[in-house]
Amino acid sequence: MSALDSGFYFAESENTPMHVGSVAVFDGPAPTYGDVVRLLLSKLPLVPRYRQRVREVPLQLGRPMWVDDPHFQILYHVRHTAVPSPGGDEQLRNLAGRVLGQRLDMAKPLWELWLVEGLADGRWALISKVHHCMVDGVAGTDLMQLMFDLDPDATHAEPREWTPRRDPSSAALMAGAITEAATAPLRTLTGLPGVGAAVRNVKGLTETSRTLARTVPSLAKQAVTPTARSLNGHIGPHRRWAWTQGSLAEFKEVRTALGGTVNDVILTAITKAFRDLLQGRGELSSDKLVVRTMVPVSVRSASRRGSLDNQVSAVFVDLPVGDPDPASRLRSIRGQMDEYKRAMQAVDVPSIIAMGDYVAPSMLSLGVRAGMQAGQMWCQAVTTNVPGPRVPLYVLGKRMRSAHAYVPIAGGIRCSIGIFSYLDTMTFGINADFDAFPDVDVLSGGIRRGIEELLELARAAEGTPGEDRPTGGTPTRAAAR
């Protein structure tokens, strides 16, 4: 494992399962359980990681390793269940919340897939769970598409026999870890640039330093900005899960009229949701108050696309929940994101991530676990946007209607929002600690209200008459109230 993957693995604990997930809904009728199993068996040769389990190196002399599971049984990983027919969104969300809130068996390959029947209109669903140490969001989307087709009449290869490689002994694991520790610095030295490249690097370093110097004042400002720390705290074993949606056309309309990027508009709509939540709790204490969210950023290059490791960094964005003006909130978020883009272009983020490869595995394990147990107060949420396909997808000839992302919570952060785009729809999957967020529907409804609020501003700026305004996604019941 890489150091980053090892961090996700070590972060796993009784109350903090570290898998990512999704719920995909399809047109009916549902395929048989056997058909789903055979489809996955035909795809598994393309993703050997799904037949591997984690082996820790004795005495933690090295990072955990992936080894073939000699007892791999796909019938354990593919499950079959149903909701009382005709099941609606609420029944599916409740089921998915229970399934996604349960830990994976860490002694087996770290994934599960659930076939769900009984949905209204003859529809069915797939609930997927994959541990974060296996793939990040972008790579995970690529891997999940292996079971999807662009053609409803696509055919699939027959499953092939598989023979696991021999499980290495503890002595072999230790020997490999010692060899890796000795040779990794040498590989780094052999990759050092020549004189000409060094001169270019010095010039680049000068510009990088200037960019970082401009960024430092903003980071210092974040340190003294009041955050909604009531959202931080202990995480229990249970989860609440809610979702809402909007259309990509809505976000593009706001972007065109008010500026920024689609991601800036998304974060501004989420800001409205947290503002409503804190206002409803009587905790909107200042117009300077922010909810600081971690926004994962993929640093995966095109040449690394599809590789089975994590290539992610993160930025911390202050959502100005205390600001009553939505236009001002958008400007604030846009300014922060522009600054982060300049900083990340100036810094070799992949190289910084790779520095973790030189941290002693035992120290990495202790550091991650101690940090997860102690919690933190720096940020209050995680918000991640995973771009999906703009073309229809099919599984066993059945068209996917919608998909919702599930992002784990850990380290004192008791709420996460996973955004997933498919065709012209963007869905927001909200995962929250059960005890800390009895009002999670306020967040899902608030996102929808935030979208509507920004659309009103955009159409007012363009002079669009109110009666001609098209409608967006369907509001949740909380939004209707």
Automatic annotation (TrEMBL):
Return the EC number.
Answer: 2.3.1.20
Enzyme class, UniProt record, top EC level: transferase
Q: Does the keyword Lipoprotein apply?
A: no
Q: Where is the O-acyltransferase WSD1 C-terminal domain?
A: 310-454
Which segments carry the region annotation Disordered? 460-481
Q: Which reaction does it catalyse?
A: an acyl-CoA + a 1,2-diacyl-sn-glycerol = a triacyl-sn-glycerol + CoA
Asked if the Swiss-Prot or TrEMBL record annotates the protein with the keyword Lipid biosynthesis, the reply is yes
Q: Which UniProt keywords apply?
A: Acyltransferase, Glycerol metabolism, Lipid biosynthesis, Lipid metabolism, Transferase
Domain O-acyltransferase WSD1-like N-terminal as annotated: residue spans:
1-266
Give the pathway.
Glycerolipid metabolism; triacylglycerol biosynthesis; Lipid metabolism
Family the entry assigns: Belongs to the long-chain O-acyltransferase family.
Q: PANTHER family annotated for this entry?
A: O-ACYLTRANSFERASE (WSD1-LIKE) FAMILY PROTEIN (PTHR31650), WAX ESTER SYNTHASE_DIACYLGLYCEROL ACYLTRANSFERASE 4-RELATED (PTHR31650:SF1)
Which protein, by its recorded name, is this?
Answer: Diacylglycerol O-acyltransferase
Give the organism, scientific name.
Blastococcus carthaginiensis
